[in-house]
């Protein structure tokens, strides 16, 4: 019987991993010794980082999605199924349709989901850009505001040392917002206030989750007239009065509340019974090097579902996926793992509507900020519009 590799999740992590596994294991697949299956709950693959651009009317839905099947090599079996239960003891999953799928190796890449309902009033009064519909709603508000106050907040998971989704995004969208309002000619009438919680991973009273960038931000914000506050941990929101209250006892009014909301793993992962994450958030306990789920020798996890202290973003998946692929391949061929993840994250930050800043970091080295420029912005546009789809197909 063929060795079955089952991948759950049709985002960038699952898609590129499936395609690269075909390349690595092609002789075994051709001989019928290995088969690969990918399950996704959507027929569409969305370029999720582009939701941020939707909020600024720079991307529309059909530009940021492709049919999932079109991104997968023909050797991969693809089924439109949503997993509702993991049976790690029996090496199988159960789908909502009733289908049961067994595996020899399981790779979980199910991402995370915004959970604004975890903060009182945030779902009713806040806006975010981590899903298409929410970003579209925010875009309409940003296109129409003439004067007032836009208040920006960031909420971290309760789990110690786990970051919020896409660590650089709050800073990116703050600078993009400044550019947008200047372009519309209303910047002088709109106050922008950027805030960060008291505790951000291992840092306290900062403006960003890594020290060097935190120290650079004040000068950037002051140059643009953006106000900022350290130590604002969003606790609750009064939708009628349009006031955000912090755990530190502060109260701030707003016309638009642009929030990075709480996040959790998907429900099936939360219900799996193996997460050690705080507050039922569901992050899977992950070996920092092998990318295996701790305690499960044939189960790997990557992307937003991990409990690692690295950004929950595509820039992490791009470095985690090759490690998973190499280790699964090595286990099938030699009975042992061969590769280790170093915590590497590579990305290009959008520093306004046109400028970009390449960045990278890992477990031992923090981000080293570099001057943003138009060339960096062009590189980001090139990735957004073309290179991303080549990465998903396993061509880069």
Shape: globular
Radius of gyration: 21 Å
Q: Would you tell me the structural class of the helices and strands? A: alpha/beta
Helix count equals: 10
* CA(first)-CA(last) distance: 32 Å
Indicate the topology.
Layout: E1 3-8, H1 12-24, H2 26-30, E2 34-40, E3 44-46, H3 51-54, E4 65-67, E5 76-80, E6 83-87, E7 92-95, E8 100-102, E9 105-108, E10 112-114, H4 122-125, E11 126-127, H5 132-144, E12 148-154, H6 169-184, E13 190-195, E14 199-200, E15 203-204, H7 211-224, E16 227-229, E17 234-238, E18 243-246, E19 251-253, E20 256-260, E21 263-265, H8 267-270, E22 299-301, H9 314-334, E23 345-350, E24 356-361, H10 374-392
Parallel strand pairs: 1-2, 1-9, 2-5, 9-22, 11-20, 12-13, 12-20, 13-16
Antiparallel strand pairs: 3-4, 6-7, 7-8, 10-21, 14-15, 17-18, 18-19, 23-24
Helix pairs in contact: 1-9
Description:
- This protein has 396 residues and is α/β, with parallel strands linked by helices.
- It has ten helices and 24 strands.
- Strands 5-2-1-9-22 form a five-stranded parallel β-sheet. The chain has a five-stranded parallel β-sheet with strand order 11-20-12-13-16. A three-stranded antiparallel β-sheet has the order 6-7-8.
- Helix 1 packs parallel to helix 9.
- The relative contact order is 0.15.
- The model has no long low-confidence stretch (mean pLDDT 95).
């Amino acid at each position: 019987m063929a060795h079955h590799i089952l991948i759950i999740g049709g985002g960038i992590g699952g898609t590129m991993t499936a395609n690269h596994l075909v390349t690595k294991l092609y002789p075994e697949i051709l001989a019928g010794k290995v088969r690969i299956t990918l399950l996704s709950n959507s027929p569409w693959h969305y370029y999720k980082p582009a939701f941020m651009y939707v909020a600024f009317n720079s991307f529309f839905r059909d530009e940021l999605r492709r049919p999932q099947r079109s991104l997968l090599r023909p050797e991969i079996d693809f089924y439109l199924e949503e997993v509702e239960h993991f049976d790690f003891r029996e090496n199988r999953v159960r789908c909502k349709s009733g289908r049961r799928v067994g595996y020899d190796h399981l790779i979980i890449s199910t991402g995370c989901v915004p959970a604004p309902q975890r903060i009182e009033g945030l779902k009713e009064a806040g806006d975010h850009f981590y899903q298409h519909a929410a970003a579209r709603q925010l875009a309409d508000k940003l296109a129409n505001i003439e004067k007032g106050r836009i208040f920006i907040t960031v909420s971290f998971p309760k789990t110690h040392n786990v970051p919020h989704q896409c660590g650089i995004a709050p800073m990116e969208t703050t600078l993009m917002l400044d550019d947008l309002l200047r372009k519309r000619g209303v910047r002088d009438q709109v106050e922008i206030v950027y805030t960060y919680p008291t505790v951000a991973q291992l840092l306290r009273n900062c403006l960003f989750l890594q020290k060097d960038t935190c120290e650079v931000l004040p000068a950037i914000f002051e140059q643009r007239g953006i106000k900022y506050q350290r130590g604002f941990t969003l606790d609750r929101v009064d939708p009628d009065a349009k006031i955000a209250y912090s755990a530190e006892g502060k109260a701030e009014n707003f016309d638009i509340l642009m929030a990075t909301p709480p996040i959790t793993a998907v429900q099936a992962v939360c219900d799996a019974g193996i997460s050690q994450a705080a507050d039922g958030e569901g992050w899977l306990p992950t070996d920092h090097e092998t990318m295996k789920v701790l305690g499960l020798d044939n189960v790997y996890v990557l992307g937003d579902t991990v409990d690692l202290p690295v950004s929950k973003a595509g820039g992490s998946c791009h470095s985690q996926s090759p490690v998973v692929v190499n280790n699964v391949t090595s286990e099938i061929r030699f009975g042992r793992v061969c590769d280790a993840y170093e915590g590497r994250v590579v990305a290009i930050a959008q520093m306004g509507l046109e400028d970009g800043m390449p960045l990278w970091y890992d477990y031992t080295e923090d981000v080293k900020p570099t001057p943003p420029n138009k060339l960096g912005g062009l590189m980001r546009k090139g990735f957004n519009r073309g290179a991303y789809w080549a990465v998903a197909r396993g061509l880069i």
